[in-house]
């Protein structure tokens, strides 16, 4: 009985330490975005447009405040393109912010680039979008940033 009890206490102690470690450490998330032309039919008319993973709007990125998201963008389209992490402050990574003609050369067709998106003070819903020509019209999606575990959003 005493052994079982001490094992149980030990288990609770170890899992408590693990939980604290997990909470203290910012998590890393990895996404692969495949940019490609996709046929979409709307109102009886079909047209080809650039999308991420055949999805319109594109995939949702979900992370917690303080996390870092790595997005490996594979450009299988016909033009160079960058992705901009709209509303995410990237002071440590100005070259990974994607506004074309300012900090980053376009990702050329048939090549890829991995963005490091550091969510430091951001909370709530932001968005990512392409940053060249008209591509943002079809290449965009949400970034949902949950509050750090144990806290709440600073708004209702
Ligand atoms: C996009 O497609 C690629 C290739 O099929 C896949 O590996 C990746 O997980 C997909 N990404 C998302 C965000 O669904
Ligand atoms: C889109 O449809 C056109 C016309 O049917 C076709 O030629 C083209 O290959 C299709 N594109 C894709 C990416 O499936
Ligand atoms: C391109 O993608 C490959 C395979 O996913 C990855 O190993 C490589 O690091 C990526 N290159 C860049 C520049 O992101
Ligand atoms: C911009 O997009 C239009 C329509 O898709 C295309 O004809 C044109 O070549 C593109 N321009 C550049 C600089 O990519």
From TrEMBL:
Belongs to the multicopper oxidase family. This is Plastocyanin-like domain-containing protein. It comes from the Eukaryota. Gene3D superfamilies: Cupredoxins - blue copper proteins. Residues 36-147 form the Plastocyanin-like domain. One of its GO terms (molecular function) is copper ion binding.
